[in-house]
Amino acid sequence: xxxxxxxxxxxxxxAMAIFGKLAYEAGVDLGDLLLLRFAFAAAxxxxxxxxxxxxxxxxxxxxxxxxxxxxxxxxxxxGLFFGALERMDASLLALxxxxxxxxxxxxxxxxxxxxxxTRRIAALLIASSGTALVLGxxxxxxxxxxxxxxxxxxxxxxxxxxxxxxxxxATTPPIALxxxxxxxATCTFALASAVQGGPRLGFAPSGWLWLxxxxxxxxxxxxxxxxxxxxxxxPSAASILSTFEPxxxxxxxxxxxxxxxxxxxxxxxxxxxxxxxxxxxxxSRRQPPAPEPAAPAPRRNSAGxxxxxxxx
Length: 312
Fold this sequence. Notes:
The protein has helices at residues 2-14, 16-25, 30-52, 60-85, 90-97, 100-110, 118-139, 145-164, 166-171, 174-195, 206-233, 235-241, 244-257, 263-280. The protein is mainly α. The model is unreliable at 290-309 (pLDDT under 50).
């Protein structure tokens, strides 16, 4: 069940760009999409977090940090992502966004949280080459420069969000953190909507279907299945299985909108995903000789705590 849950999460996340395109076709405004997505998702996740006791014992500082992560970092990432989605193909945007694991690794090295290694440098070079091929291949077909810049900006913003929230995620239950992030983003987009005169809900009725799909399928269900799968297979395997997310987006975009990647873009996308696998794939370590029996010590939880992958 663990791998299946992780793959189901990748399908849910991968469908978000498709739902977004369909919402735009129904006349949904960018601001309304962002506000309603996070409002619906926050309501559901807050109810789940309270029912499961995820907020129990959580400090005010951790709650404030989670709200700030959503209100500042994730709001910026999501705004750039859906802004780019208005200007470019969903499949191309999915591949551009997925350079964020390499950017996170680079940021962690710069901050001294990780050490540079041949493996990490190779992954960064592979990801950079793949991104160059994706953008270069698209440029020959009329790439929107602003859309591409917003897509790269979304990847950068998401990387900063993950690095900044590294300490928060280590002490906050995943469901509670996800609920707080969505609540913080809702507050930001509610304020932005109020400044612009309030929500404009005159879109086609089908727009509500796609908005609910983005919130319930590509946010709530995607988060819950990811964490359920990670609990069974571990964080490394869950991260590797999550690389199917952009593959799902490309496949769904081809089916829904007849989008297609040229050979250069396909090669670039494969390189980007290969870089993610190089970063995430666990290394085999030789076990040290067993020590002499000693007095029992308190056990530490060795499972990593992943951040809510709300973007893609």
